[in-house]
Amino acid sequence: MSVRILALVGSLRAGSHNRQLAEAAVKLAPEGAEVELFEGLAEIPFYNEDIDVEGSVPAAAERLREAASAADGLILFTPEYNGTIPAVLKNAIDWLSRPFGAGALSAKPVAVVGTAFGQYGGVWAHDETRKSVGVAGGKVLEDVKLSIPGSMTRFAETHPADDAEVAAQLTEVIARLHGHVTEPAAAA
Length: 188
Known about the structure:
The chain is 40% helix and 18% strand.
């Protein structure tokens, strides 16, 4: 049985290097792991309790919740926007955090990775994302990290899947996330 990992990308830009990194994760997923790239974060309205009512939750938000509920773990790919998490990814986390205490993130292993133009690869955004996921109920994997600096030059002519160092690091991230997903089953 394959472990299902849902990938969310915090950039909506067509040529996003974080999207390319997520595509690489789909391609490089080791045996026993299946990474699914979620499409549709741009269609999800900003979280508002007034529209989060059973029976009338916006369809895009419901699709996100269903995909996250069906996943065994999540991997979030995020750039850094003005030193923090992009709004589209924060909005997804907000939708997945509800209902409070029983949201689709509840107790699911979550890894946060990404690339950014700056010399630290988006570390601030990754830290803020981990914080938000933890508050939302996810099981943040603090020991599983990948922040790739210099995205504009590093990936100017090379897809992340074709960068041997990045491919190896990303494969390791997925394998470690896979290990966190299967730990409870192995202990039982």
